[in-house]
């Protein structure tokens, strides 16, 4: 009788997957079973099905747990499968033993009789064990899937550079940006490490979700220690493609514009405000920090000269639409709108409207509910 098999769907470089393999090795001391790993990177259907859930642990076609090993469920499933395999194997042997022996044909009179040849009866294969489960692995039969040796995910091996192979979903990109904001502030405060629980407290994202978001891009952090803040800041900036220079033009040199230009809100993440423009003659030529306020009529020249990617509108609401039109005409395709006005732009232009009131409304809902 073959030993029960536990299948782990994973991808190389996933530290949660490596942890799961370690946990399964520990369980094998209590209940013997084999472990087979399946690399989801080798099958597009498996990749789409499991990328957001790895590691996924399955026994006899039933998905038992995601992200981490549920020891009790795995051991229960292994023991149940062992009993079913034993029952099926015993039934097959009993069926083979109950068959009547073949009667040899009588030998010809002129030929000396010889004992009949002993023929090996083919033992029928063990019947497949039906798996009745709430969730089934349907991508393709497990026996045909490419397997990756557990050694390929050795946690002591250095992880490859975590370059994302697929485009991030909107939710994951937003969460990674929040992690980066908190980690950047922690670095400024002199923090060397931060746990997923601390990151969760500051971002209001479940710690399991945080580990899942990060595990797809390499091995980060150590149990009992946490994440290396400097390393994780560098890695997330690479994932979000913010390691390169990003030029910003700020439109509006009023109170809000001056506050934005004088803060580290963009500079902390490698973004550079290359120009501050306004249409007020009294402001043009006066400095904001190290930058002189320029004339908004030169917007197109500024965008071309500095390869501006992002335009920030910090003007009164009545002027915002006109400034947005000028940004679009100059070729800027990302606009941050702090004016509160509802902007009309072409479909290919992305507009992010930011308002402290929105965050306040969200916070007050939970306080007042």
Explain how this protein is built.
The structure is a single chain. With 369 residues, the protein is α/β, with parallel strands linked by helices. The protein has three domains: 5-94 and 129-153, Glutaredoxin, CATH 3.40.30.10; 170-239, Winged helix-like DNA-binding domain superfamily/Winged helix DNA-binding domain (Arc Repressor Mutant, subunit A); 246-368, Rossmann fold (3-Layer(aba) Sandwich), CATH 3.40.50. The protein has eleven helices and 13 strands. It has helices at residues 15-27, 44-50, 71-97, 170-188, 196-203, 207-215, 229-239, 255-262, 299-306, 317-330, 356-368; strands at 5-10, 34-39, 56-59, 62-66, 193-194, 227-228, 246-251, 271-278, 287-288, 291-295, 308-313, 334-337, 350-353. The protein has a seven-stranded mixed β-sheet with strand order 9-10-8-7-11-12-13. Strands 2-1-3-4 form a four-stranded mixed β-sheet, covered by helices on one side. A two-stranded antiparallel ribbon has the order 5-6. Strand 7 (246-251), helix 8 (255-262) and strand 8 form a beta-alpha-beta unit. The protein is elongated and about 95 Å long. The protein starts with a strand and ends with a helix.
């Amino acid at each position: 009788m073959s030993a029960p098999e536990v299948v782990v769907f994973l991808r190389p470089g996933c530290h949660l997957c490596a942890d799961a393999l370690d946990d399964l090795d520990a369980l094998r001391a209590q209940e013997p079973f084999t472990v087979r790993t399946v690399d989801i990177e080798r099958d597009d259907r498996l990749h789409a099905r499991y990328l957001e859930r790895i590691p996924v642990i399955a026994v006899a076609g039933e998905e038992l747990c995601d992200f981490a090993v549920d020891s009790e469920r795995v051991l229960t499933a292994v023991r149940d499968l062992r009993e079913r395999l034993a029952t099926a194997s015993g039934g097959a042997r009993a069926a083979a033993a109950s068959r009547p022996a073949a009667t040899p044909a009588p030998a010809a009179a002129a030929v000396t009789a010889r004992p009949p040849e002993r023929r090996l009866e083919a033992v029928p294969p063990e019947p497949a064990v039906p798996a009745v489960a709430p969730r089934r692995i349907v991508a393709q039969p497990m026996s045909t899937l490419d397997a990756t040796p557990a050694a390929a995910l050795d946690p002591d091996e250095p992880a490859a550079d975590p370059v994302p192979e697929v485009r991030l979903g909107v939710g994951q990109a937003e969460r990674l940006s929040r992690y980066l904001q908190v980690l950047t502030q922690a670095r400024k405060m002199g923090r060397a490490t931060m746990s997923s629980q601390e990151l969760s407290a500051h971002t209001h994202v479940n710690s399991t979700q945080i580990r899942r978001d990060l595990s797809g891009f390499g091995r980060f952090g150590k149990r009992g220690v946490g994440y290396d803040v400097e390393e994780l800041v560098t890695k997330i900036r690479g994932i979000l493609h913010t390691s390169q220079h990003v030029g910003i033009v700020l439109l509006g040199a009023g109170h809000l514009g001056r506050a934005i230009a004088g803060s580290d809100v963009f500079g902390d993440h490698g973004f550079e405000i290359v120009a501050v423009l306004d249409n007020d003659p009294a402001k043009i030529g006066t400095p904001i920090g190290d930058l002189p306020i320029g004339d908004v009529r030169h917007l197109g020249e500024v965008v071309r000269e500095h390869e501006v990617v992002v335009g920030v509108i910090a003007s009164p609401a009545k002027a915002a639409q006109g400034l947005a039109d000028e940004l679009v005409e100059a070729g800027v395709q990302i606009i941050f709108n702090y004016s509160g006005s509802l902007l009309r732009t072409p479909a290919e232009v992305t507009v992010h409207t930011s308002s402290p009131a929105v965050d306040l409304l969200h916070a007050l809902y939970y306080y007042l509910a």
